[in-house]
Structures are given as structure tokens and as C-alpha cells.
Amino acid sequence: MNAVLQGHTASASALAALLHVDKVSLEYKTPQRVVRATHEVSFDVYPGDRFVLLGPSGCGKSTLLKSVAGFIEPSDGEIRLDGQRVSEPGPDRIVVFQEFDQLPPWKTVKQNVMFPLLASRTLKRREAEERALHYLEKVGLAAFADAYPHTLSGGMKARVAIARALAMQPKILLMDEPFAALDALTRRKMQEELLQLWDEVRFTLLFVTHSIEEALVVGNRILLLSPHPGRVRAEINAHPFDLNSLGGVDFQHTAQRIHRLLFDEDGELQVEPDLRFQDIRISN
Ligand SMILES: Nc1ncnc2c1ncn2[C@@H]1O[C@H](COP(=O)(O)OP(=O)(O)OP(=O)(O)O)[C@@H](O)[C@H]1O
Ligand SMILES: [Mg+2]
């Protein structure tokens, strides 16, 4: 797996940012009041990045992702993708959510992957089928192309959702806690598979989690957000951690640093009490 991470793009600053998030404030207006979800959040994502938004519940991670997807307009600031201002959803940004039961149950696995390609008129039926089979093979589900979603495990549904998103060949893949509903072992396996897939396909990823461990394994760069409203606390370079690094000294140090940065002023733990991470703390 090291090769996966060592293969990361050259110095980010030498490249133009693909996604430019500039002082973005996001608000929800309810009849009673205005909820400010994020305050002047800025970050740049470069081609081939696996960029992670990490922070406690309510710090605006999902809101930020929805805004990049074009579902929520910033009240202040600007989001640009490939130089174009983001103002509405588009096929260049595909979101994978936590709930894999979003796969329509009356469509086979292959039809599920083909659907967005056909609905967006990206491809004709024949090419869409070829593309769907190509990505199903990439996620190891070629043999299940004609199966229906209810016959699949949670991990397999996750793979279909990823294949469906990648088949659209978006400029950026957006994932909001995509593995949170899976059991711990399947979650670990999906993280590993996502890295393998990235190594083969080299997509650009914006990934939301509130697990420090998952952020360090999946990401090459991590943006730490503090809550109410979400602001940038720090940016961490997670390269070159992977699943083999778990429990290693460097991994522990970085995890602890992140942990300290995410403590609020009262010293309360603000992130998911990750079991592995507690092990790390106890051993020190
Ligand atoms: N539809 C909504 N209407 C009003 N306020 C909202 C709405 N959705 C989210 N919020 C508020 O915006 C803030 C950010 O919410 P968001 O869902 O983006 O957080 P999050 O970081 O994704 O949290 P979690 O880790 O729990 O998913 C929270 O204070 C939340 O209460
Ligand atoms: Mg969320």
C-alpha cells in the first residue's frame, strides 16, 4: 500500500488548484434565526489530492460538501472548480453519501451504475453499459452486475455507490462519511480498497469524516475544523500514512497532534472517541 501513497502528486504548490474554496461562510435561515454553519473557510484541493475535512459533529463538514456540490450557495465567499464559479449541481461533482440504500432496489447493479450516465445524457446506452462494467470490475463487482441491491452486503453496496460515482468521471469525487454505517472490519477494508482504487484511477477526492484515524489513512491532506460556526483550525499533511502505519510512532504523533488541535477551549473531547486512538493515548 505504500506505493499507493508514495505515488502521490508532486509538490501541490507547483500545480493549479482544482477546487478553490475562498472565505466561504454558509448559513441556514430558519423562521426563528440564522444558523451560521461555517465562517470564512478557505482551502485549495489539487488534482489527485485526497483532501479530508475533519472535525466534530456540527462543524459544517456536510454543509461545506453540499456547497461544493452546488446545493447550497455561500452567504459569503466563493467556490471555484477548474476556474468556474460553482453555483449549481453538475456532473463534474458527484457525491457519495453514507446511506447506501440510496441505490434504487428495482434496478440491477449494472443499471444502477448506468443510470446517471444515461439520465445526464453523458453516454448512449451501449457506451454507458461498457463504462459501468469497467468500473464494476474496478471495484470487484463484475460478477454481480445483474444482481439486485437487496442481495448485496453493506460493503458491496458501498462499492456500487463508488463505481456509480466514478463512472461519471467527475472532476472531483465528494464523499460524506461514506463508510460510517459499516462495521469496523468492513470499514477498514473499504478504506483500503478506496486507496487501491485511487492508485489505479487517480481521481481527486474530497472526503468528510469525524474519525482521526480514518482521516489519516484516507487523506493526504487534512483540514481541521472547529465548530459553531466551522472555522479552519489547521491543515495537516497526512502523507505518507496508510493502513500499515496504524499504531506506528509517526502515526501516533500526528494523531495526537490532531487530537490536541481539536480539543475545545474547555478541554472536552470534540471528536469521535475512536477505539484505536484511545489505545494510542493509553500507551503513552
Ligand atoms: N437544514 C438545516 N437547517 C438549519 N440548520 C442546519 C441544517 N443542517 C445543518 N444545520 C446546522 O448547521 C451546522 C453544521 O451542520 P453540518 O451537518 O454541516 O455538520 P457536520 O460537521 O456535517 O456534522 P456531523 O459530523 O454530525 O455530520 C450545525 O450547527 C447544524 O445544526
Ligand atoms: Mg455531516
Descriptive notes:
- The protein is α/β, with parallel strands linked by helices.
- It has a single domain (2-92, 170-282), classed as 3-Layer(aba) Sandwich (Rossmann fold), CATH 3.40.50.300.
- Helix content is 35%, strand content 22%.
- It has helices at 2-6, 61-69, 109-119, 125-138, 154-167, 184-201, 212-218, 249-262, 275-282, and strands at 19-29, 34-45, 50-54, 76-81, 84-85, 93-96, 172-176, 205-209, 221-226, 231-237.
- The strands form two sheets. A six-stranded mixed sheet has the order 6-7-8-3-9-10, sandwiched between helices. Strands 2-1-4-5 form a four-stranded antiparallel sheet, covered by helices on one side.
- The longest helix has 18 residues, at 184-201.
- It is globular and about 50 Å long.
- Magnesium ion binds next to helix 2.
- Adenosine-5'-triphosphate binds next to strand 2 and helix 2.
